[in-house]
serine O-acetyltransferase
Amino acid sequence: MTFSTTAMSMESKLTSIIYQHLTGFEIKCIKDMGLFPFGTSSTLVRDLMDDLQAFAEKDPAAGGRLDLLLENSSSFLAIVYYRIAHFFWLAGAHEPGMEHLAVRISEVSKRTLGIDIHHAARIGKRFVLDHAFGTVIGETCCIGKDCYILGGVILGAYGISGNASNKRHPTLGDRVQIGSNARLLGPIDIGDDVFISPNCVVTKSIPAGTRVSIVNQIQINKSHLPAQPPFTKVYGSLVHQNEVVLLCNGFTRLSASIVDNNHTEISAINVIPQSSHEHVVVLKMELVEDIDHSSYAEPLHLQLKDDGHEITLISPPQLTHMLRNMTINAKGRLNESA
């Protein structure tokens, strides 16, 4: 990639832009406190240069033009505001009054750009927001390196009011990609290399290397085969008595299991493929040993594997209820025989 100017001149320009977005009052506070953090060799500027290069590499609309990104991209400017505000927030632990500057700068970003990144959130290197209007990143969010988030994404708390003041927002691993208007709510963990499709509402932790999408219900789709997109699809599911009926496509050697909310397999339940007819697969649930509900975390999910591909149906309707009833009925029969 060919950049239009040298790295040194870009750092100088970035430093100049940082000062442009500080008011005279804020600059005076910095000088009064003896803080001059924004030279071209500062950590803040270097981090923003990393962000800038990530924007240029990952956003095809940028065309590699760092100067255009610096001067015109509201999404990149939101990162500039965040990095400055976060710097002041961290400095507030040692310099009284710095946290007030952090809040001021965050509010300016929110009002002028329509992008709300809390100054206390922790965001790793090479962060890209694309078409970021309407994005909200909450106070206790932690975001890893090389993450890419599209517009309208909410990384928020699960509740509406009365949320605890401790950890209440998501934690993202490295290289996470989130599609537009997705909602990630609560203190959940999103593993490395997770892809979350647009419009998903995610309230449970997601393991690394998976793809979350909505096809009538939320699914986690994972391929163990490099450079090949998953070709298996599940369009819907129906729970009936002790069976799950799948409307699906692409399965050839299907195996299935029940996993709990921590994605730990429940070995006491066998899932047996009974029959398939074109796009319909019937799975029978069989309880092979007694099981204690307190030993696993509800709700339960249905995990499907086929030729290196893996799809986890997140809490299919009535699945948890059905398996709980199976356990209760099995215990009842044991008591009667005793």
